[in-house]
């Protein structure tokens, strides 16, 4: 489903004429329905890698294939369509609209472009998903009336509303306490299975990573499989 081939990423730096190399020769293949977690210290390039996978950024070198299509060959309109329809994003900060209700926030991604499902079905899917994550009585609440864990659950549901094939989570529990973090981890695992959505998450917490799925480590710009030592 997803393949990275010799991906590298560098940024220009006034302090270094050669630039700063964040990612070096990353090669990775992710199958449909797989659950993968990438760990590493802050500043190791985890978010950069996730942004490249999610077509939010382009690599300096190498190729990113999504269903066999090279993302570098797509124009901005085509990339935007993939981001909206095929990929769901969950960030450390939920980015919910404070003036909108929980239900309205979940439905925001469905407003862009022509939707694949009738409006009534989309609305029912939103309600069903919110019920599954324990928020059936909070549909008309606004983000300010929710706990941090509840807001992040709304963000997860919003990421899933368009039935994406790939769910990307960037430090999804970084701002939560231990109990809420464990709940979000369990939720991601359950949705990975029930929604049959491929999951790639990044975190600095090895304990959290082991809860979610297969663990790989990003260090010094290189990605290695922790299970292989």
What separation lies between the terminal Cα atoms? 26 Å
Oligomeric state of the chains? single chain
Strand order of the largest sheet: 6-7-8-3-9-10
Based on helices, strands and strand pairing, what is the structural class?
Answer: alpha/beta
Shape assignment: globular
CATH superfamily: P-loop containing nucleotide triphosphate hydrolases
Write a structural description.
This protein is α/β, with parallel strands linked by helices. The protein has helices at residues 46-53, 76-85, 102-107, 119-132, 148-160, 178-194, 206-212, and strands spanning 2-13, 16-30, 35-39, 61-66, 69-70, 87-90, 166-170, 198-203, 214-219, 222-225. A 6-stranded mixed beta sheet has the order 6-7-8-3-9-10, sandwiched between helices.
Strand-helix topology:
Layout: E1 2-13, E2 16-30, E3 35-39, H1 46-53, E4 61-66, E5 69-70, H2 76-85, E6 87-90, H3 102-107, H4 119-132, H5 148-160, E7 166-170, H6 178-194, E8 198-203, H7 206-212, E9 214-219, E10 222-225
Parallel strand pairs: 3-8, 3-9, 6-7, 7-8
Antiparallel strand pairs: 1-2, 1-4, 4-5, 9-10
Helix pairs in contact: 5-6, 6-7
Tell me briefly what this model is.
By secondary structure, the chain is α/β, with parallel strands linked by helices. The chain has helices at residues 46-53, 76-85, 102-107, 119-132, 148-160, 178-194, 206-212; strands at residues 2-13, 16-30, 35-39, 61-66, 69-70, 87-90, 166-170, 198-203, 214-219, 222-225.
List the keywords.
globular, four-stranded antiparallel beta sheet, single chain, 229 residues, Rossmann fold, alpha/beta
């Amino acid at each position: 489903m997803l393949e990275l081939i010799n991906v590298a990423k560098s940024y220009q730096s006034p302090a270094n004429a050669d630039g700063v190399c964040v990612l070096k020769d990353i090669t990775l293949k992710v199958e449909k329905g797989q659950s993968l977690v990438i760990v590493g210290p802050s500043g190791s390039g985890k978010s950069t890698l996730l942004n490249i996978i999610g077509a939010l950024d382009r690599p300096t070198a190498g190729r990113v294939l999504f269903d066999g299509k090279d993302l570098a060959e797509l124009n901005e309109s085509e990339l935007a369509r993939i981001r909206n329809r095929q990929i769901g994003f969950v960030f450390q900060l939920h980015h919910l609209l404070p003036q909108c209700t929980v239900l309205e926030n979940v439905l925001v991604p469905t407003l862009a472009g022509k939707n694949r499902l009738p409006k009534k079905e989309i609305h029912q899917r939103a309600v069903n998903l919110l019920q599954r994550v324990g928020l059936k009585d909070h549909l008309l609440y606004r983000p300010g009336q929710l706990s941090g864990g509840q807001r992040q659950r709304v963000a997860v549901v919003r990421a899933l509303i368009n039935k994406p094939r790939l769910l990307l989570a960037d430090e999804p529990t970084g701002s939560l306490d231990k109990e809420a973090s464990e709940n979000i981890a369990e939720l991601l695992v359950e949705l990975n299975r029930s929604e049959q959505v491929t999951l790639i998450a990044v975190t600095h917490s090895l304990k959290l990573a082991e809860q979610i799925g297969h663990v790989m480590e990003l260090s010094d710009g290189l990605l290695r499989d922790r299970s292989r030592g």
